[in-house]
Write a structure and sequence with these properties.
By secondary structure, this protein is mostly helical. It has two domains: 82 residues, DNA polymerase, domain 1 (Orthogonal Bundle), CATH 1.10.150; 161 residues, Intergrase catalytic core (hpI Integrase, Chain A). A hairpin with an 8-residue loop joins strand 2 and strand 3. Helix 6 runs antiparallel to helix 8.
């Protein structure tokens, strides 16, 4: 039996050096650990002996367990990076293709709907935190890690320190979020020193599930009927509303912190109402006849 702990430590270090977040590293390590244990216990193979056909067998096992194609593709990414970073070998992607996975567009919130959700939150801390999701297009991890010095009320911008993959960037600061942040700060008996929204985890930060729970409760309480909306959908709503308002795709890409405009395009969604002003070219053709 190989030392799985040592392998996972090496994998964690490789991911950390490439600026993967702690949450992503934990997820990748969990997936790969389970994969290696099954390979060892069922197929009696050490990591260096595993080949593409073993991985195909594992994919079929996951399908038999009714794991979705999208989740399996995510698992394969974790395993791919383990092979590359730790075993120093590559998986043949021609043998291990990505499974077809539908990507239904997320359910978005309009400005009026979001304001109803925000009005349903009593805790000023969570109200301020959640406002940054829609108002600045921040990821939940970026909101949790906001520093006091991140808020630039003179230029009305937010500086994101070490966002996804460790990148710094600036995004827009909403007047609404600024007012809520000031109300929250004023209400704190013990004023935050470094992070704007400190919490009780081991690093002194608010836990992500606490923010998601507050958002989900407010979503239900608001009565807007969109209980399937996820917190990350606020980022999609932010991008979509900016594009619909006429802002440049590349400027929105910069605000979101995407490395490619193709990623930003995936965040932009049209609602049926947005199509009201469009006319079919077929109808236009009839006018010329």
């Amino acid at each position: 039996m190989f030392d799985i702990k040592e392998d996972m430590e090496r994998f964690d270090m490789a991911l950390w050096l490439r600026n993967y977040s702690a949450a992503t590293r934990m997820k990748y390590i969990r997936v790969v650990r389970e994969f290696l244990i099954i390979m060892n216990n069922v197929r009696h193979k050490l990591p260096g002996e595993i080949n593409e056909f073993d991985i195909l067998w594992y994919i079929n096992l996951l399908l038999a367990w009714n794991i979705t194609n999208r989740t399996i593709n995510s698992y394969m990414s974790s395993i791919y990076w383990y092979f590359k970073f730790v075993l120093k070998t590559k998986i043949n992607r021609y043998i291990i293709p990505s499974l077809y996975a539908e990507h239904p567009p997320p359910v978005l919130l309009s400005l009026s709907e979001f304001k109803r959700v925000l009005a349903s939150i009593d805790d000023i801390k969570y109200k301020a935190m959640i406002s940054f999701g829609y108002g600045s297009g921040l990821r939940i991890s970026e909101i949790i890690n906001l520093r006091i010095q991140s808020i630039d009320s003179t230029n009305m911008v937010v500086k994101v320190f070490r966002g996804k993959r460790g990148k710094d960037r600036y995004t827009v600061l909403s007047h609404e979020s600024l007012n809520l942040a000031r109300q929250y700060f004023k209400s704190c008996k013990q004023k935050p020193a470094i992070f704007l929204f400190p919490g009780n985890d081991k690093n002194g930060l608010t836990r992500p599930y606490q923010v998601r729970k507050a958002f989900k409760q407010a979503l239900i309480k608001s009565g807007i009927g969109k209980t399937e909306v996820r917190f990350h959908s606020l980022r999609h709503s932010f991008a979509t509303d900016l594009i619909n308002a006429g802002y440049n795709l590349y400027d929105v890409r910069s605000l979101l912190g995407h490395s490619s405009a193709n990623m930003t395009i995936e965040y932009v969604h049209r609602s049926p109402q947005d199509l009201n002003g469009f006319e079919s070219p077929l109808d236009g053709l009839k006018k010329t006849l």
